[in-house]
Amino acid sequence: MSLTSFGPANLIKRSAETHPLTWRLRDDGEPVWLDEYQAKDGYAAARKAFADMAQDDIVQTVKDAGLKGRGGAGFPTGVKWGLMPKDESMNIRYLLCNADEMEPNTWKDRMLMEQLPHLLIEGMLISARALKTYRGYIFLRGEYTTAAVHLRRAVEEAKAAGLLGKNILGSGFDFELFVHTGAGRYICGEETALINSLEGRRANPRSKPPFPAAVGVWGKPTCVNNVETLCNVPAIIGNGVDWYKSLAREGSEDHGTKLMGFSGKVKNPGLWELPFGVTARELFEDYAGGMRDGFKLKCWQPGGAGTGFLLPEHLDAQMYAGGIAKVGTRMGTGLAMAVDDSVNMVSLLRNMEQFFARESCGFCTPCRDGLPWSVKLLMSIENGEGQPGDIETLLGLVGFLGPGKTFCAHAPGAVEPLGSAIKYFRPEFEAGIAQAKPGVPPLARPIVIGA
Asked: What contacts 24+ positions apart, CB below 8 Å, involve 358-364?
């Protein structure tokens, strides 16, 4: 994976002032281990948090900085931290790092864990101090074997240096950290499904309320944050609120920087740390280099397979939650995918919906039955055997599986790209509808769900 720039972006150099997440990266892509990390001001923010800041002040600083979750949902981190109970008698509480990262076209957390494992550990250490959690878990996608090796080595280095374990930095605060590899399920990206899996249960989402802050791991107060979210914490504590807010471009309602990228048939697929508010066109043209010779951009997704498709004319949208919402979808993980003009949208959607149908936990009926139904319809259309009304049925499924209609956000994310693909490329779907033969009744369709 690339962290280099393309074209005019070559003029931009990573520094601690502008690239808090990535300035410590090595040019050779090797991990930054403890000695080098500390030589690059590593754990300085943790020492500041332990020596000079009250625990509630850490929470307030993160809240004032406006840090939002970087896993895709974008919930304010400081607000989430504030939901943890204040009762000091509840001394068993947990911090969970969501490192499941199963979203297709997304690999940002993997880079951080493989190359900067101590940045994540420092972020969790400061967060644990703020939340008064005595134990933490990094719930890691099972396929990330290299990240697991690097994280476990970094944890042992931190323990040996007195940065994890008992009486950290002479403060009397204890924090143990464990790396837990999952079994490879997309649904574990949902925080309560992750908690169930960590406990050894089936990875089904839980009913909320109660929320994890009240009843989480083994019934105890628990805070769950994404890898990139936690990696922002050291810089916020070390450099302050005003500095962090100054990083974003004018017009952005989100603060700080974000790991963004482009995959697909672009000249320079990769991953870059950029300020919120950069336009998608700048990301696509200046960093990703535009499409390869012989290919034309047909459409793109701004942040993973669970976000809606956008057209080339939408590239001027700013990359932050509100900016992407203005053109009709969600920013998601910020890792965009370019779809070239050789791709048939029906085939692409069939492939996507097969993934989402397979990854459904099966708990609620709309998701369990609706997603496989969409796959069957798409397969028929792909093979030129679709029936009149199939497109209307697919649109009905988009509505029936939308936000608020299912137990968790899996199904709404699964059907968002389907609805946008039909909106922008309906003729490709219509081309797969077989012409009805005279005298032959149609199959048991059309059925418009929720009409």
From this structure: 359/102, 359/185, 359/186, 359/187, 359/410, 360/187, 360/410, 360/411, 360/414, 361/185, 361/187, 361/193, 361/202, 361/203, 361/204, 361/205, 361/410, 363/204, 363/205, 363/407, 364/406, 364/407, 364/411
Residue-wise pLDDT for 135-159, tens only, equals 999 999 989 999 999 999 999 999 9
Domain 21-246 in CATH 3.40.50.150? The answer is no
In the chain, the amino acid numbered 257 is T
Joined together, the tokens standing for residue 187 give 């649904």
In the structure encoding, which two tokens stand for residue 49, read together? 């948090």
Measured from the Cβ of residue 376, the count of other Cβ atoms closer than 10 Å reads 13
* Rounded distance between C-alpha atoms, residue 54 and residue 51, angstroms: 9
Residues 6+ apart with CB under 8 A from 386: 377, 380, 429, 432, 433, 434
Q: Where are the domains of the chain?
A: 21-246, 257-340, 345-430
pLDDT tens figures, 277-299: 999 999 999 999 999 999 999 99
- CA 421, CA 371: separation in Å to the nearest integer? 16
Residue where the block lists tokens 């939002």: 68
Considering the chain, what is the average pLDDT of its residues?
91
Q: Do 21-246 and 345-430 come out as alike in CATH topology?
A: no
- Whether 438 shows a pLDDT value over 80: the answer reads no
Please answer whether residues 58 and 187 qualify as being in contact, where contact means their C-beta atoms are separated by less than 8 angstroms. Answer: no
Task: Write down the CATH number for the domain with range 345-430.
Answer: 1.20.1440.230
* Complete edge-to-edge strand list for the sheet that includes strand 297-301: 270-275, 257-264, 335-340, 297-301
C-alpha span between 278 and 127 (Å, rounded): 28
Are 19 and 257 spatial neighbours (Cβ–Cβ below 8 Å)? Answer: yes
pTM: 0.91
The DSSP result for 75-125, as a single string, is -BHHHHHHTS---TT----EEEEEE----TT--HHHHHHHH-HHHHHHHHH
Tell me yes or no: is domain 257-340 CATH 3.10.20.600.
Answer: yes
User: Which of 353, 404, 346 has its CA nearest to residue 374?
Assistant: 353
| Cis bond upstream, residue 210 (ω within 30) | yes
